Amino acid sequence: MTASITRRTTAARSRIAAVGAIAVAGALILTGCGDQTDKASTAPSGTADSSAPLFSKLPKKIQDAGVIKVGTDATYAPMEFTEGGKIVGVDPDIAAALTKQLGVQFKFESGTFDTLIGSMQTGRSDLVMSSLTDTKARQEGLDDKGAKTGAGVDFVDYFSSSTGILVKKGNPEGIKTLDDLCGKKVAVQRGTTYETSAKDQSEKCKTAGKGEIGIESFPTDAEAQTRVKAGGAVADLNDSPVAAYIAQTAGGGNDFEAIANPTDAGLFGIAVDKKNTELRDALKEALDAVIKDGTYKAALDKWNAGSGAVTEAKINAGS
Distance from first CA to last CA of the chain, Å, rounded? Predict the structure, then answer.
């Protein structure tokens, strides 16, 4: 996802068509808006394994703690969501694979998406892993108008996703591309690159004389979905795997349809403070290791997310 620090103008988070079911209403109840004090979290023991292959590459502070604190917005199934009081999904399973290389646990804490980077930079978490699109603006700490708002972050890129358009079942408005949204209302999650993408598309519509897009922004994607389901908006923009997952599961598959736009794929990255290069480099090396040994692909395949797999870890490869 992306917030005022923008995800990406074309692609943001991704949630994949997965086995299981999370209805829109359920997502609202389970995840809520929250902040960095939300109760939903993983609960690792904090016991470090110093014999792990890459333990020595970690900052001493994390070695001593035995835990990497992860900021996430656990409202984005199947990438990260709450089930039975625990945060589960693609990102937690990738983190579990990284644990075997690094020898420390990843403790996920759920908060509001557009506060995650700021919370990390004030020390409340060590990194952000929340289907966060790697963009130059985020790397440089710029808002959606190009103004400097912070120090920026570094990304370790681990997944590829494109824009998904979620519409009501039966696609009553006949939406096929972003151009079909001209003159209509669209729901998005606040602070995501999809909010920026909708604004950019609205400008294109205006220039073409087709009518601007009416954009409604909500704290969570679940609320944007509810708006579409109620008929208040014709579409919700989010990541293609997430849109596919929602279409498959919400209302037993009877509430929505998903339209993919594979031409605008972007990279999700694990965000790390720019000063924490030791952690960044350890994560990159660990990700390359789990890609090589197959545990990374197994984590994606568990959630039918294999189409978003990358072949190597990269730093700040987003655009």
Answer: 15
| Calpha distance 34→18 (Å, rounded) | 25
For residue 281, the 8-state DSSP code is H
Q: pTM for the full model?
A: 0.73
Longest dimension (CA), the chain: 63
Nearest one of 150, 149, 113 to 133, comparing CA atoms? 113
Distance CA 27, CA 34 (A): 13
Which helix (H) or strand (E) covers residue 82, if one does? strand 80-83
User: What is the number of H-type helices and E-type strands within the chain?
Assistant: 10, 12
CA distances from 18 to 1, 36, 183, 239, 304 (A): 19, 27, 33, 14, 5
Counting Cβ atoms within 10 Å, is residue 254 exposed (0-12), middle (13-18) or buried (19+)?
exposed
Please, what are the averages of pLDDT over each run of 10 residues along the chain (319 residues)?
37 33 33 38 71 98 98 93 96 98 98 94 96 94 87 96 92 94 96 88 96 95 95 93 88 93 83 98 98 97 88 96
Tokens, residue 169: 């079942």
For residue 12, the model assigns a pLDDT of 38
DSSP string, 152-167: -EEEEEEEEEEEEEEE
Distance CA 195, CA 72 (A): 19
The pLDDT of residue 38 is 46
Amino acid at 43: A
86-88/80-83 β-pairing? antiparallel
Predicted local confidence at residue 196, as pLDDT: 87
3-state secondary structure at position 126: coil
